[in-house]
Amino acid sequence: MQGRLATSLAAWTCEAVSEAAGENVTMNTLKTQLAELQNLKIATYGKDFLLTWEKTDDEIRALTLVAECFYAMHKARKSFRVFETGLAVSIFRDKSTRTRFSFASAVNALGLGLSELDEEKSQIAHGETVRETANMISFMTEAIGIRDDMYLGEGNTYMREFGQAVQDGFEQGVLHQRPSVINLQCDVDHPTQATADLMQVKNHFGSLEKLRGKKIAMTWAYSPSYGKPLSVPQGIIGLMTRFGMKVSLAYPEGYGLIPEVVELAKQNSRKSGGSFEVVSSMDKAFEDADVVYPKSWAPYQVMERRTPLLHKGDKEGLKQLEKECLANNAKHKDWECDEKKMKLTKGGEALYMHCLPADISGVNCAQGEVSKNVFEKCRIATYQEASYKPFIIAAMIFMARLKDPAAVLKKLNPRITPIAAN
Question: Cβ–Cβ contacts within 10 Å for residue 23, how many?
Fold first, then answer.
């Protein structure tokens, strides 16, 4: 009996010490993040989050800091609930796993209820206007998350129309508060993915400052499917070029992105002191790369052709376009991230990234974006990359709905000694 009691006491003591040590680490992390957060100039209150390049560098930095605070608090089993009541609404006009559950997790952690708008089960199917829908779902709503990535030239536009509608409802006194619209992926950008990716590289290399001079290869990769959105590669080149990285965009001839986003990436790289290049060789992009992001996407011109066909419900036209595109994709099956290509990277050990799900050769397809061996070696890292998304989404909502994020974070963690801003 005494032996079992001693063993139990020892185990309890070790667990208590471990918990105390973990809490100290969390407190130290929060102190560091809050100190930096207090020195940043942000104006995100009451705003939407539709494109990363519409936010300042300070606001992007603040977003990662808030997300890191939430990540540390959750790991320490500390609540970051800030709402006593209210709703968050999600509108997914395309399929989703990671982003759907990340949005649900984020709003739940903040204290909001979640409702998913199914357009087929709503009056939208009977011709209800965007203006009307936006107001009807917003009476007690704090945040609206929208995914609309299928129609080139329309997804981001739809989100802005939604934002204008709730703004009008608020100004006219219909709504007590103006909900913030969060882009959960559109035709132009995927902000929640890109900023989660930024957290991944920041934590991998140690800080945003240490990203300067690091090379990231954002490359097209072969897929046995077509019609994948442009928003992931555009989100990466639109964001990583802001932090002094050497960004190499690679794709076969004819697989270009939206020209305006490519031009934006060039401008960002000049301002940040980094570099940006477009090459037509996956091997060249991988050479000496610190990070690789092999991901398939449909050519810009194909997405332009696809939109009117989708609108008209032209099944035969879509079938012919798919046949044409798959035949073209098949010419580039050598655009696969395999062990040979990974050996071209910095020390043969570049950080492999993917938004998931990846087309894995010999696993979920005969031949795809990445070889089975490379993906298995890097699988946990991609899961870690994905794990930042609920905290990024929570941070976006938190910064959009609260006037002083640093003060609220301090209130959530009263044991943290106040830090005077410089």
Answer: 14
Q: Which of 44, 192, 2 is nearest to 106 (CA)?
A: 192
In 3D space, the residue among 202, 184, 236 whose CA is nearest the CA of residue 393 turns out to be 184
**Could you read off the pLDDT of 324-367 as tens digits, one per residue?**
999 999 999 999 999 999 999 999 999 999 999 999 999 999 99
Q: In degrees rounded to 5, what are phi and psi of residue 41?
A: -95, 115
CA–CA separation, 137 and 88 (whole Å)? 9
Rounded Cα distance between 294 and 332, Å, is 13
Secondary structure of residue 221 in the 3-state scheme: coil
pLDDT at 416: 65
Mean pLDDT lowest among 209-223, 260-274, 309-323: 309-323
CB 106 within 8 A of CB 390: yes
**What burial class does residue 419 get, using C-beta atoms within 10 Å of its C-beta: 0-12 exposed, 13-18 middle, 19+ buried?**
middle
pLDDT at 56 over 80: yes
Strand partners, 91: 146
Distance (Å) of CA 323 to CA 174, 329, 361: 49, 10, 21
User: CA nearest 283: which of 329, 236, 221?
Assistant: 221
Best CA proximity match to 130, nearest among 176, 104, 169: 169
Nearest to 276 by CA among 336, 221, 218, 343: 218
pLDDT for 9 equals 45
Closest by CA to 90, choosing from 130, 45, 148, is: 148
pLDDT score at 127: 87
Q: Is-above-0.85 flag for pTM?
A: yes
Local structure of residue 121 (DSSP, 8 states): G
Q: Which residues contact 205 (CB under 8 A, 6 or more apart)?
A: 211, 214, 290
pLDDT at 85: 96
Q: What is the pLDDT of residue 277?
A: 98
> Closest Cα to residue 225, out of 379, 95, 328?
328
Continuous H helices in 38-92? 57-75
Residues 344, 287 contacting (CB under 8 angstroms):
yes
